[in-house]
Specification:
Blueprint (H helix, E strand, L loop, with lengths): L1 H33 L5 H14 L1 H10 L7 H26 L9 E4 L7 E4 H8 L4 E3 L3 E11 L5 E6 L5 E6 L10 H8 L3 E10 L2 E11 L1
Parallel strand pairs: 6-8
Antiparallel strand pairs: 1-2, 3-7, 4-5, 4-7, 5-6, 7-8
Helix pairs in contact: 1-4, 2-3, 2-4
């Protein structure tokens, strides 16, 4: 009995770690799905491979989702049945959770300082909060022909971008914005363009907003 009692904290920690791991992975999937980029196939493979290595996770899956040593089709089928409802139930709380991102902070970190850490970025928060059908694109290179509005405090801006008709709303997260006479304020004052890198948020195939992270002359 003494040996079992002494080992209890060890087993407790193993199961806690396994539960934290799967909650973080499903949490990350929910975040990606609400932001329009969820990949259930990848989630299934990650869970399946981890369960092969962790008996504690295997036990949790066997009691709560599906036996981890079943084939991928079984795990995939169970998650396909479960996750859509989970995503819908998470939608409203997620909007409230990410409300500060873009207003009082530029990102939110979940499971911080652990190997399961994942980040909700400002573009992701915008998509999660929005009632519109938005989609996040990959980081791309752009050319600004003219920047005509700039808020040094928030990073909000309006600019004309080469190859895109009309003005575009932007949000600058580049730390250089805090530097006096930075490239953005300089180009605004001198009414000239610059090159920049940004992650687009699209609506119906057209750019809704650009999240700018870097710029050069």
């Amino acid at each position: 009995m003494a040996a079992v009692y002494n080992d209890y904290p060890i087993f407790h920690e193993l199961y806690k770690n396994a539960m934290d791991w799967i909650i973080a992975k499903i949490g990350g999937y929910l975040k990606d799905t609400l932001a329009g980029r969820g990949d259930v196939e990848k989630l299934v493979e990650v869970i399946h491979e981890q369960a092969k290595q962790q008996s504690a996770l295997n036990t949790i899956l066997a009691n709560g989702i599906v036996k981890a040593n079943d084939d991928l089709a079984s795990l995939h089928g169970k998650l396909i049945d479960t996750l859509p409802e989970l995503v819908e139930n998470a939608r409203s709380p997620a909007k409230k959770m990410v409300a500060p991102v873009g207003k009082t902070c530029t990102q939110m970190t979940q499971f911080a300082d652990t190997e399961n850490e994942f980040i909700v970025s400002e573009p992701e928060a915008l998509v999660i909060r929005s009632e519109l059908d938005l989609e996040i694109g990959e980081m791309q290179d752009y050319v600004c022909n003219k920047i005509y509005e700039l808020n040094l405090g928030t990073g909000a801006c309006k600019l004309y971008v080469e190859g895109i008709g009309g003005s575009i709303n932007g949000k600058i997260s580049d730390p250089a914005l805090d530097t006096p006479n930075n490239i953005y304020s300089r180009c605004l004052n001198e009414q000239r363009g610059f090159k920049f890198k940004a992650k687009p948020v699209d609506r119906d195939g057209e750019i809704h907003k650009l999240f700018i992270s870097d710029a050069t002359e």
